[in-house]
# Entry
Amino acid sequence: MKEGGIIVAAIYYAIGTLIDGKGNHTKGLLCGPIAVHPKWQQQGVGPILIEFTMQKAAELEYPYILITSNPLYYARFGFTPAFKNEIHLEGIDNAAEAPFFMMKILDESKKIPAEVFHHPSCYSVFQEDVEQFDKMFPYQEKRVLSGQLR
Ligand SMILES: CC(C)(COP(=O)(O)OP(=O)(O)OC[C@H]1O[C@@H](n2cnc3c(N)ncnc32)[C@H](O)[C@@H]1OP(=O)(O)O)[C@@H](O)C(=O)NCCC(=O)NCCS
# Structure
């Protein structure tokens, strides 16, 4: 989202797959991160991006969106803990993922297999490649700011 030619907010999502024990695949979206410039926070910008994502995903006929984030914030958009639908995240202990791994079902008519969500392939990166990529930009200190969801 741009304001006066400056990017003030962004949301990212990628396609992943739920695979059940019988090998059935159902593609869906993994959403996040989302970030709003501190000056623009608390003014409804984040919700605009989240609502836009949900609308776009439904138009593209994805039956669900998943997110790993703060359950208190995302509950207001209808996200509920994914384990309630017997859906888990690959590579993470079930106890560690709940309640941060959340789901929003967009198409109630579609049967979503209760099983494991496999990350979008673009999430598989080599640490060395990430470090090389980061070197293209000026050094940034990692900080936790007040508007950050935890
Ligand atoms: C989280 C973020 C995207 C929200 O965007 P926003 O445009 O400020 O969203 P809103 O306008 O809905 O305002 C923030 C709301 O979140 C609430 N909130 C803030 N921290 C919260 C928390 N830890 N738990 C629950 N709610 C929280 C605020 O109280 C406010 O609620 P209100 O509308 O009832 O007053 C934005 O604050 C941000 O970019 N934070 C830094 C990056 C980040 O944490 N991203 C999320 C990782 S997925």
User: Anything to note?
Assistant: The chain has a mean pLDDT of 90.
